[in-house]
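User: what does the whole thing look like in 3D?
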Amino acid sequence: MRRAGWLFAGVLLLAAAGFASAYWAGGRLASLGATSPDDLDWLRLEFHLTEAELDRIRALHEAYVPVCEHNCHQIAAAKEALDRLLAAGDLGDPAIEEQLAEIGRLRARCQAAMLRHFQAVSRAMPTEPGRRYLEAMQQLTLHAHEAVEHRMAGESAEGHGHH
Amino acid sequence: MDMNSAMKSEPSGTGRDALAVALREARPAERPLPPQFTAGVWRRIERAEAAGPGLPAWLLSVLDAMLRPGRIASGVAALMLAGAILGSVQTRTAARETARERYLALVAPNPIR
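Assistant: Here's the predicted 3D structure for the full assembly of 276 residues, as structure tokens:
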């Protein structure tokens, strides 16, 4: 029955080769239709939008991107200014608190602009996809730091318990 | 009567003949051997010799059941279909995730997230 063992090993090898080649071919075929350089590809794929809906959203998107870039540059510049103040070494300098407040103000302005844009995009979609989109984007805009804050709050409470 | 004595009683016969005699003489005369009994015994001996010491009987029966051309062909075909589906689904999922990251990088940059 040694022959059966070899035969079985050959069949296993054949099956593995068949699986691997089919996996590769399936991936290649799928990538032919999936890859596109369009920035709005995710919206099209995830929310099943028509070309007309996508065109409306594209107009909103193209108007919003420069605003977003401007806000980002302002936040980045404010953070660099804060870094310089911190590097000076005097942590009691009131300018540090003012700079932190400025960063907070710029972030809030950026978040407000994002929310307005997301709402406009959601209204350009059919009702249900629009609701899903807005929910996801609000989560991203407002609640991204919640996990960190919850964890810190938990650690803080635990720490106080030990004191 | 054992096999050795049966073989000795037929010095010119083959091993197969000796086995037949031994099997016949080992049973009472009033209970004849079933048809093809001797052939069955030889088949089992040959199978056991060919199997060698490494393969247990249950594995032999599993291999025997699996190594049929029809089953091999359908098994390989099923694996290839599964591979093609899995490859396609995983590629699409990865492409969607890349597209999502690209979109979010434009509308919700990291300083805010």
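In plain terms: The CA atoms of residues 10 and 17 of chain B lie 8 Å apart. DSSP finds five helices and no strands in chain B.
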